[in-house]
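Here is one chain, start to finish.
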Amino acid sequence: QVQLVESGGGLVQTGGSLRLSCAASGSIFTLGAMTWYRQVSGTERELVASIDNVGKPMYAENQKGRSTISRDAAKNTVHLEMNNLTRDDTAVYYCNALIRTSATSAVGNFWGKGTLVTVSS
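Its structure:
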């Protein structure tokens, strides 16, 4: 029923910027916090940034000062602008959202399929 679709990944040089987007669609009764995670093959998925239902952001320490997370309630979309990228930012970035699909449903965790960010020198 619910789909999260990420976009905006690609190849960027060290020091460059990218803007990731994640759009939620389908059966959405309420949309809560939306969060970006990233994962390198063979490692655990790690949190990048999150934004709650009223727009309060939270960032991983290595993102503070260079990334901005925002949301567009009308479009059920979250954005992550990343600046001053380094090779350490290379990963698949995944979108997560807390969603109730109906008035009688519990809050559930939903994931997108990911978008690849590659940072080169």
